[in-house]
Design goal:
Elements (H helix, E strand, L loop, with lengths): L10 H10 L4 H9 L15 H8 L7 E5 L5 H8 L3 E6 L2 H13 L5 E4 L12 E7 L7 H14 E12 L10 H7 L10 H7 L3 E8 L15 E8 L2
Parallel strand pairs: 1-2, 1-4, 2-3, 4-5
Antiparallel strand pairs: 5-7, 6-7
Length: 236
């Protein structure tokens, strides 16, 4: 007798089943990044204002960095210029082609990886900083626990996790976790409240959690007030 292919035996099978209810991510993001002239705020080639603040104040110092959802590379390039050894991951080949062009034009070395972070294997306790500018709010709720667990395991003791993500209720980011599956869509992305972020990262020390400061473009920095910015530290 032929074994049914749509069977659930473990938690990863549940994750794959729930993934199948939502759009396939890589083709959508490749299409998104294919038109570089769209008026998308984060298409600017400027690092996050909070990230620059952390380095300028020596809250962060150069080290080994993993960026999750790096897009066209603006933050990865900045951190490499600051002397960091950077691995930058994105599932969109279109985004990474753009990122590599930017890095090459500035003679900056970044190791770009085209992959889904859930398909990658990371060495435990290997990064001083993990940075996410806009990835978390596009991760489905059923994958969030694995995502946070990966960050916890991959950071060195005392290492930091930097984050920017949508504020709940702004820019249309106001559906609940359960509604994702009723609607079979994350819509524009998932918004977060301050309390939800503190709860999700409860076993990290909160270094900073605030609204991002809007930067009027053109500007050497990026910032939008509809985003949270946070810096969490893994306990030693």
């Amino acid at each position: 007798m032929i074994e049914p292919t749509e069977s659930i035996y473990n938690s990863e099978d549940v994750n794959k089943m729930l993934d199948s209810l939502l759009r396939e991510a890589a083709p959508w993001w490749n299409e998104f990044y294919s038109d570089r002239e769209k008026g998308i705020p984060f298409f600017v080639n400027a690092p996050d204002e909070n990230l620059v603040q952390y380095f300028d104040s020596n809250t962060l110092i150069p080290g080994r960095v993993l960026e999750l959802g790096c897009g066209p590379g603006r933050n990865a390039i900045y951190m490499a210029q600051k002397g960091c050894e950077v691995d930058a991951v994105d599932l969109s080949q279109e985004a990474l082609t753009w990122a590599k062009e930017r890095a090459s034009s500035l003679d900056v070395n970044v190791r770009f990886h085209c992959a889904n972070v859930f398909d990658m294997t990371f060495t435990p306790n290997s990064y001083d900083l993990i940075y996410d500018s806009g990835c978390l709010h596009h991760i489905a709720p059923h994958r969030r626990i694995s995502y946070i667990d990966m960050i916890r395991k991959t950071l060195k003791p005392g290492g930091c996790f930097g984050l920017t993500c949508f504020v709940y209720g702004e820019q249309g980011a106001q559906i609940t976790d359960w509604e994702v599956y009723r609607l079979r869509s994350l819509k524009v992305g998932l918004g977060y409240t301050e309390q939800k972020l503190r709860t999700l990262f409860h076993d990290f020390q909160v270094v900073e959690l605030r609204r991002m400061i809007r930067q009027v473009q053109p500007n050497p920095l990026f910032g939008e007030s509809f985003l949270w910015t946070a810096l969490f530290q893994k306990q030693c």
